[in-house]
Amino acid sequence: MLTKDGILIIGNDDTIKPGLLEVDFLASSLGAMTRFNGANDGYSRYSGSGPLEGGLICYFSLYFYDGILDMVIWTPKWPGTGNSWAEWSEEEELRVKELNDRLLEQYLGPPPYSYAWGSIESDYDMKGGSSGIVMKMLGKEGINREASLPIE
Questions:
Q1: Which residues pair with 132 in a beta bridge?
Q2: Which is nearest to 36 in space by CA: 24, 26, 51, 27?
Q3: pLDDT at res. 140
Q4: From residue 90, how far is each of 23, 83, 99, 104, 151 by CA, in Å?
Q5: CA distance 11 to 118
Q6: Which tens digit of pLDDT belongs to each residue from 67-120?
Q7: pLDDT one-digit tens code per residue, 8-58
Q8: Which of 55, 74, 97, 108 has the most crowded CB, counting CB atoms within 10 A?
Q9: Contact status, residue 86 vs residue 59, Cβ threshold 8 Å
Q10: What are the extents of the domains in the chain?
Q11: Is 127 exposed, middle or buried (0-12, 13-18, 19+ CB in 10 A)?
Q12: Residues 6+ apart with CB under 8 A from 19
């Protein structure tokens, strides 16, 4: 489930939301099941997976800046879509993006999805060959630090 308040519920009760502290995330059951992907320049990165309501599995990456959630990228694993690069095609990936678009419309209504806490968008990365849903939080200063996000 996803709300206009930026609350993403994974599993039965694990919540990812704007303002989430890294220490609280790590103390949660969801945090205990994630993989630490490194840290630099104030950023810490984690990845994992879990179900949305209805059992749709999502893969996610969380980025914390100075211990506060800065960005979440989540990718639903839609039934009937490929599981490997051998099965990948741009046509199929654009279909996945369309499914992601519909999911956002189901939860949030029509775009754009800009809120006081940040923004949400369905994205297709042509260079990376993948689609996902990106939640960007506004920093304490009300600005998005995306330009300074380190490359993994």
A1: 123
A2: 26
A3: 57
A4: 38, 14, 14, 21, 24
A5: 23
A6: 999 999 999 999 888 778 888 888 998 999 999 999 999 999 999 999 999 999
A7: 999 878 899 999 999 999 999 999 999 999 999 999 999 999 998 888 999
A8: 74
A9: no
A10: 8-148
A11: exposed
A12: 68, 69, 117, 137
d(CA 152, CA 46) in angstroms, rounded, equals: 11
| 8-state DSSP, 142 | S
Please write the tens of the pLDDT for every residue from 134-143. Answer: 999 997 544 4
Reported as type and span, the H/E element at residue 123 is strand 118-125
Q: The tokens 């939640």 sit on which residue? A: 135
What is the reported pTM? 0.86
At 123, which amino acid appears?
D
Q: Is the peptide bond before 111 cis (omega within 30 degrees of 0)?
A: no
d(CA 120, CA 57) in angstroms, rounded, equals: 19
Q: Which two tokens stand for residue 42?
A: 């104030």
- Identify residue 25 by its one-letter amino acid code: F
